[in-house]
Structure formats: structure tokens, C-alpha cells
Amino acid sequence: GGAGGGGGGAGAGGPVERAMLSGMLALSRLITVVGASSPNASVATMRAEAALDALLSNFWSTKQHYLRRCAANASDVDDGGDSRCSQLGHTSRFPPPAPPQLQCDHKSDCCADLPEKEREQCATQEGCAARHCCWDDSHGPKNFCSPPPTAERKLTGYWNYQEALHAVALGAALDPEKYSAWVRQLVDAQFIQGTGWSVDYYDDMNWAVLALLAAHDARLDGAQDYLNLARKVFGLVSAAWDDSVCGGGVWWDKMHTQKATASNAGPALSAALLFKATSNTTYLEWGQRVYLFWNATMTDPQTGAVTDHYNAGGTPPSPAPPPIHHNCSHTEDCCGDLPRGSPAYNKCATPSGCESRGCCWDQNSPPHNWCSGKPNVSSPTRRVRNTESCSLNHASWTYNEGLMLGAATALAAAAASSNGSTSAALQGRYGADAARFASHLVSAQTEQKEGRVLVDSCDWGETPCHDCSQFKGIAYRELGRWLRSPLASLGVGRAGIERLVRSPQLVI
Known about the structure:
Helix content is 45%, strand content 6%. By secondary structure, it is mainly alpha-helical.
């Protein structure tokens, strides 16, 4: 999902969910780091810039001084807050939902001033879209093309906005002359919103911390202001650590419903980066504490799989899902040596036939069911205390492993610069952890689909999620952080990651 092989233009969802800006910008760095040929690196950078320009031109609302949830030529078509937007000229295997009648402004006809022949062409859905107008096909013979709606559109959500800010900050690091003013504009805009920088979700505020630190690291004008603000917002996040429930962890929300990887591994990463920026050992000690707790309780020591969160306060446990596609290795097709369509192949491509060959059957991805090699690792071992008031949720998302990978990488760098007596031992431990998380991302959370690509369970319809493409962008971003670090040379998964990045038609 996401921008993929295109130029990163605006899509039908929220500004980051579909444009995949963080992923595209991370990709440009990834390809450069692993030594891809210069044409590939150039293409990746061009795509990243195109995606960024699409965001700023199509989603920024001058009137509302914020990013819209939908692109300038799109309309909100739902009330559920799930980022569904109509998109003129949108192409996909699913047609965009038709906008309600009142979302077109019928005060004038966009085609009225054209000669007869051009007017006939304009008075079609495609012709109307070409003029950036609003097509209404709900009036039978009176269908016509009118100016787009003038009503104010909904604004994008807080965490989506912070991911967009992070992407712009990464862009400013590559081209400060072009994007540094936009960083300032986006930061100033957040100040004037009703929520400001404090919201009800600690993981959301941590995305803001990471974005502000990226702006600081870009060495832009006002870099110290971005750092000071990052420290202030981080203070709100770090205060949410609580030992009284399940032994520790940072709350996900102010309602104290759960503790999640995003609100623990993410802040551990932020703490390590804050130590790098300030040399304040308090940040490092706090980040190490959070990371060690989460790594010990919510990650598998062999596979590198990371549990999403645990519910607290007596919340009923989320049922453990059936085995999903990345429980099979998918590195090879066990039926691939048989003639496709033959009786032997058809027998192999069934659960019993697959098992008879000693392989792994995936029955959770119709119509993509297939028979692959068995995973080379055991199922994740869950070690957090599982009681009525502390129950695990087994959802699996790529950004969880990505955040743990980023935290391990940043903490290793922090340990190297701290020169403590345990520095070398810590670096080794973080290095081994990082290799474990990176290897799991590549071996267990990818599919062969026009090139090796990251996948989440929602990509196969197993779990609803409107943020999957953003999760991938974060995972790619943290893979890039690891590949740029000395730890990557020690990682057993580096070769696999290079193949992932160099896929002929990489689709993020």
C-alpha cells in the first residue's frame, strides 16, 4: 500500500497514510546506505521529493493553517474518522466512493464558458476531473460539473500530522533551502491548534518528539527551539511510566486502558536521541530502563517478534488471532517444483498436501493461500504477566519491530558515547537485539509481491487498520537508522535487508 512506484502524489486517504512520505524519504536514504547504484538512489530521492511536494501542495490549507485530512480536490465521505476521502482521478482496483450531492458547489457550471465540443468533453467525469472541478452523477440527465466545495474540510489527526512534520524535517535535511521554512510553518501551526502539543495519547506525543528531534538534527534555523520543545513534550510522555500495573511500562493513553510498544519502544528511542542531543544522562538512564523492561517482557528472545500491547484495568483480553501469513517463512514455494495446474501441484496446494511435504500452510490469506517453507524460529514467547488486569493483545504490526530496532540502535550509540564501565557489554547486547529485530522484519514480515515488501496483517484483510502504510514508513525509517549505524555490519539480516531495498519494483 502507499505511494509505491509512483511519484508519491496525493491519494485517497490521510496525508501520510496514502502518500507514505516518511517511508519514501527513508527509502532514499536506505538505497544510498546499502550501496545501490546511483540511478536507483537518484530515483528514490526524486520520488521522495515528489511525495513531499504533493503533501505540501495538496493538503496544506492556507485558510485553516493546518494540514487537511483530505487532498484539496477531494471530499470527506465518512463520519467515522477513518481517513476515507474521495479523490478525483483516483485509480485503484476499488473505485472511490461517490461524494454526496451536497459536496459539490452547484452555484456555477465549470464547463459553461467552453466551446461546444470542449464543453461536451468537460461534461464527463474524466473531463470534470481534468479541470479540478466537482462531478455530480446523482441527477440523471442533469449530471454536471461544478466548482469544488468551498466548505472547510476536516483536519488531519495529531499523529498523522506529526509524521508529516517528521517527513518534512527529513526533507529539510536533504534540501534545507526548499523545506526549512515549511518545518517552521508546520511547527507554528501546531501551537495554534486547540490541542496544542498535549493530547490524550502518549504515543502520539512521542511521534511529535521524534519529529521535532528530526527538525533539530537537520541543523535548521531555530534548531534549539525544536530541541527545547521536544524536551518539553517528552516530559509529558516520560511521566506516564507506571510501576503499579504489570510491573512497569508507559501508558498508551491518559485513560490508562493499555500499555503499547508505540508508547514504550518509541519513547526509549526518543530518550536515546535526547541524550545524544543534550548529553544529559537522565535521558539515557530512563530510556535504558524502558527498553530493558519492554524487551524482557514483550519481545521474543529468539524470533525478534514484538507484541503490540497489553490491556490493563480489567479490560477483556483481545482474543489471540489465528496464525497469520508471516508465521510461515515464505522464502520459497514448496509446490514450486511441480507443474502449475497439475494434479500433483493441486494436491500440494491444500493444507493436507502441504503438510505431507513437511511445509507450512497459510490459510489466512485467501485468495493468496499457499504452501511455503516452515519458519526457522519458534512462536513468540509471551512473558508479560497475563492476569485479569493485564492481558496481551497479539496484533502484529511492522512498526513495532521497527521501533524496537530503532531504540536498540540509538541506545547502542548512546552507550558507545557514554564511556561507562559497562559500555562495551551494552553495545553488544543492543547489537544482538537489533540484529534480531531486523532479521524478523525481513524474514517474517515481508512477502514476495512485485519485489520483496513489508506486510502487516491488515494487508491480507485479517485485521482492520487505516494506518498500515504509515506503520511501514516507520519500519523503513528505523531500518535506515540501523543500516547507517556500525551495528549493521554485525547483523545477520543485513543481506536480506539489502535485497528488500533493492527489489526491482519495491512497493512500500
